[in-house]
Amino acid sequence: MADLTFNPYPQIGEQLTKGLDFIGSNLKPTSTVDDLADTIYKYIQPIYYPSPVSKQIEIEIKSVVYNMINAYNNKFIDSSFIPGEQPMFGVQQMNVIMMMIGEVTTDKTPVDALGSWLLDVQDSIGQAGLSISGQTPLLLASTCGINAYNYWIAQTNKPTSWEAFFQKNAAINYANIPFWVASCIEGALLGASATRNGLIAPTTDIVSVNIVSALIGALTIGGGKVIFKWVPRIQPIQLASKLSFNKEVISKIVGSSEGTGMRKPLSIFNWIDCGAHSPHWCNTGCGIKQTDRGNDADSDCEMNSKL
Question: Which residues touch 48 (CB under 8 Å, ≥6 apart)?
């Protein structure tokens, strides 16, 4: 029997939970974002940048915190769905990412089964046909997610450093775990892939830089979500999302070419991978390159059956 996918970054998961303890112990409900940036810097610096540390490194580490907050609140990962934008992740990566931060994680999996689900998703990374570099941000995110899940389960059962930030009703804290975990995963993804050149010097050592940035991102968004209760802003692409339309409205907008049954494409919809294996007219706006092929190719579109 083959082994499951090994995650090569277990120490990042351990450093994440210790970092969350450090944040919870050093901040209070009245703390600011600047306090969060200072605290994360004080935690990261002795681990990765032993003294003496230049002012440049301090500025760069703290800048990662602010960049991660901006990216999270403006749903930067969703740029992969916007036509014409340079995507942060490819289609196969986004398939895995949406399993980690999508509704199966946040809404459809019981909290006590979430750990098993995340382990299953992690195992799928090695089977997704991705290169090592393509797997790296996903594996960093998955180890952060799995460790964050175990951490928040323990904290909600017996609060220690985070008690001041929790709701008095313990059931609310327990119900929030999927959202806290997803935000931690998203922070790691943002940190690992925010820019091609990295956010901390030396940018020639891009792999190490992205690993550190992934940890900072996970701490920033994972901890900040609990403290500041961030909710990402509505983005313009959401206002034209296919999720905003019910079946009746879609049928009125799409229509058919009389006598041919050929559907017209909806460019106003998000671009997603609908699962089709060939170019086609698609009434979901799935983003597959469209050609004048008619209904035969359209039948490949898995999303059509969901309308």
Answer: 212
What is the total residue count of the chain?
Answer: 307
Residue 105 DSSP label = I
Residue ranges of alpha helices (H) inside the chain are 10-26, 33-48, 55-73, 91-101, 103, 114-125, 132-157, 170-193, 206-228, 247-254, 295-298
Pick the residue with more confidence: 11 or 276? 11
**Cβ atoms 286, 273 nearer than 8 A:** yes
Structure tokens at 72: 């999270």
d(C-alpha 19, C-alpha 51), whole Å:
19
Q: Count of alpha carbons within 13 Å of 122, Cβ hemisphere only?
A: 24
How many whole angstroms separate alpha carbon 282 and alpha carbon 266? 8
d(CA 158, CA 151): 11
Say which DSSP state 307 is in: -
- Is 183 in contact with 156 (CB distance < 8 Å)? no
290, 267 contact by CB (below 8 A): no
Confidence of residue 245 (pLDDT cuts 50, 70, 90): very low
